Structure formats: C-alpha cells, structure tokens
Amino acid sequence: MVNIVPEITRKSIVELIENGERADGRSIDEYRDISVEVGVIEKAEGSARVKIGKTQLVVGIKPQIGDPFSDTPNVGVLMTNSELLPMASPLFEPGPPDERSVELARVTDRCLREGKILDLEKLCIIPGEKVWMIFVDIHVLDYDGNLMDAAVLGSVAALISAKIPNATVEDDKIVLDEENPVALPINEKPLMCTFAKINGELINDPSLDEENVMDARISIGVREDGSICAMQKGGEMPLTKEEVISAVSRTIEKTKELREYLP
Amino acid sequence: MIFVEDKALVVPGDVLADEEYHTGRGTFKEDNNICSSLVGLVAIRDKKISVIPLQSKYIPKRGDVVIGEVTDIRFSMWNLDINSPYSGFLPASDVFGKEKRDLNKAFNVGDVLFLRVVDVDEVKKVKLGLKGRGLGKFRGGILIYITPTKVPRLIGKKGSMINMIKDETKCDIIVGQNGVVWVKGEPQMERVAEKVINMIEDQAHTSGLTDRVRNMLSELLGKEIEEVEEVPEPDVDE
Lengths: 263, 238
Fold this sequence. Notes:
The complex is a heterodimer.
Chain A: H1 7-18, E1 34-38, E2 46-52, E3 55-66, E4 77-84, H2 99-114, E5 124-126, E6 130-142, H3 147-161, E7 163-170, E8 173-183, E9 191-198, E10 201-204, H4 208-213, E11 216-222, E12 228-235, H5 241-259
Parallel strand pairs in A: 4-6
Antiparallel strand pairs in A: 1-2, 2-3, 3-6, 5-6, 7-8, 9-10, 9-11, 11-12
Chain B: E1 9-10, E2 15-18, E3 22-23, E4 27-30, E5 33-36, E6 40-45, E7 48-53, E8 65-73, E9 77-81, E10 88-91, H1 93-96, H2 103-106, E11 112-120, E12 126-129, E13 136-137, E14 142-145, H3 151-155, H4 160-169, E15 172-175, E16 180-184, H5 187-202, H6 209-221, H7 223-230, H8 233-237
Parallel strand pairs in B: 3-7, 10-12
Antiparallel strand pairs in B: 1-6, 2-5, 4-5, 6-7, 8-9, 8-11, 9-10, 11-12, 11-13, 14-16, 15-16
C-alpha cells in the first residue's frame, strides 16, 4: 500500500511551517506530550511504555546467559530488535521485518551501543565462556510519527529500570540469585532527537502527517556530555552543512528536556 | 420485554430485548433474544432496536456525497480513496463526455474531490460521479477525518451544529458522508474548526453537546466573538 498525501494537506502543512506554526498548534521545536512508564511488563526483567503524542511503543528487556563473541571474549552482549505491529498502522504488514523496522532497530542499537549505555565488561560472568546477553525488544503499538526518539527513550528507560538476577561463580558453575536482582551497570544515558526538513525548516518531533510530506529527516543521538553517538539521515532530499550543525546543537539542548522523563 | 435503556452503552453479546422487538443494525437474534453485535449505543425506534457503533468504517451507499483522494490514474478512469475498505472509481467519460483527453491534466494523484456515489454493485465496486451542484475539486483548505457514524451528530438537527461552526469561524465546511470533512478559511480559524470537530467526534455519544460546542467556540475565539454569538443563539438553540 502506498501512502498518498492529499495535495491540499501537503500545502497546508508547508504553509503553516512557513509561518513558524504546526498543524497541532506546536512551535517548530516543541515535542508533543511525552509519557514514560517503567515496569509495565511483569514477565520482563525491565520494561517501559513510551507515548509521544499518539505514537506509542513498549520496550522489554530480557537477559540470557550465553557465549560471548569470539573477538570480544570478555564483554557482554547487547542486542536490539524492533517489531512494527500491523495494529500500529495500516502501512505495517505482518511478516519478516521490512526496511523501516530494520532501520529503527539498527539506529536504536547504534545509539545505545555507541552511547556506551551499559558497561558491558561488567556483564561478563566467566571470561571467554559465559556472559550476559541483554535483549532489547521494541514493539510499536501505535504509529503517529517519530518512532526513533520514542524507541531510544523507551529503551534507555527500560534498561535503567531493569533488574537482572545476580550471577556468581562457585566451583566453575554459575549460580543465579533470583531473589536479589541487581540493576544493570548503567554507564551513560544517550538520547535521540529527530528532525524533519520541510520547506527548508527543521522541525522537532515530526508527526505522521509531517513525516509524510517531509523532504528529509535527520536523527541524532547524543550522550549526556553532548558528544554525538549516532546519526541517521533519511528522506530523498539533501541537508546542508549548516542544517546538520544546527540540528546537532538543537539536539544537545532538546535532550536535556527529554532526560527529565527518564526514571 | 426490553432489558436496556435508549442510548445505553452496550458491548457485543449484551442481551437487549426479547422477541417482542425487531432486530435492527448492529444486532442479531439468539434463543429468542436480541443481542448486540457491536460496541455502541442502543437506539430504539418504535419496536425496532439497533446499535449505533462508536467506531465504524464507511460502507458506500448510492446517493451519498463523499470526499475522495485520487490515488491512481488508469487508462479511462481515476481511482479514489474514499476513506473506506472499498475504493471508488471515477470514469473519464463523466468528466470529459465523449471527448478524449489527458486524464492527469484534469485531476492528478493527490487531488481531493467532492463526489457523489453513483452506484455500488454486488462486489462493492463504487462508481463515483461529479454531476451535481458544488461537486468538483477542492483548492486549499484542510481535511479532518472523523468516524462516519458521527457525521449526523456533526451536522446536527437541520444543520444547526455545522452552521454554528461555519458562522463563528467564517470557514467553508463540507462534510462527506464517509467521515471526511473539508474546512477552508483563515488558517487560525481552520485550526479552531478542527479542534471543535475533533471534540464533537470525541463526545458525540453524550447529550448537551451543542451547548458545549458553543462554550468551546467562544472560549477559543475570545470575548469579542462571544458578543456576536449571543445574537444567533436563540435560533441555534432550537
């Protein structure tokens, strides 16, 4: 199914942005209402539900003991997957993950991994043999634009709130203490901001209608100190150097606001 | 025997009445009882009991006026999305007559048209037409999508609700039976109308809606409009 935006909807969005307004009454750099709840899934070691406007997703954290990769024998494993559920949008189909789903998972993974969110060395149980593997699963429940910011926000919140069993080694055997779970070794709290370029203007937190008419999109992940850990560009049109630089500085400012939603 | 009140909220399987009554839309008969098959509000008219769903999709009906978006151009027709599980088509002959011309010069993909449902056949192929007053292509304005069953509520008795919004916001508003609403006016007023229409959709199942719409309009438009509003109030109120 192709998504065709009515010409008059496109025109009205572009004209509003020209005057510094948005269809839902926000300013250019304003987010919709954000809510973050943690611990929403009982069966998962960590979880979060994030709503940005009508966009909604849940993130679950599951740990598992596994073999480390042979090139990094002393560090744990962090893996991110995403699922675009058909109930979230008429554009999402059941079946193997499509381009959007892969992109969402990869960009989130990049932001978390390069943002050094976890001290992965502390997740090593027996060096070279057994490590914790942490799985981050993102399920999109409702799609109204800007999945990436929501996915990163949810993943970080879920990882912060996660508690895994304490693993100790006794006589070369791993003993799990399920009674006294411990928090994950959180190092950093990277977050992401997405901008849509419409008619030469960069706007924060694009809604679905705005994503449908945008020329280009850029997502930037930053750590707490403002250093960049991830960047993804989408859409058909190019971005100028100035636009990228201004997007980065706006991201650093905006993530300070987003950070307040973290547990 | 009837087990529910008029306008009560029911869920699928709720027993509404026994065999004294007739089944209407959104109901079915089981063991001599009439049950609801939808989530919605009960509507009782004489001995006929039906359920009006809270959420619905538009099912095309001959004679309806609808708002559609051109999604595809074929050899001799346009395909249109009419906010429905079924897509519609507009034959080129309806626009050009017997003359042959380039279709995309008249309407292109992405254009929004105001049309009439000319015919719906057995397999729900929806034939659309442009013959009639006010039908044609929209230029400018915004589109708002509401649930089709709430269209009567938005229009109000003899158009009272929609006329109040039109008068207060000074916008042109056209409501398609398929739940698509077109609004054109000053950009700010378009936003006001959009907010009001979304509020009506939210609260369509409650009573006293006209008063709340009037309050919301005066609140959104500020004081000076409120005074003007006092004048048409008596005839709107009927």
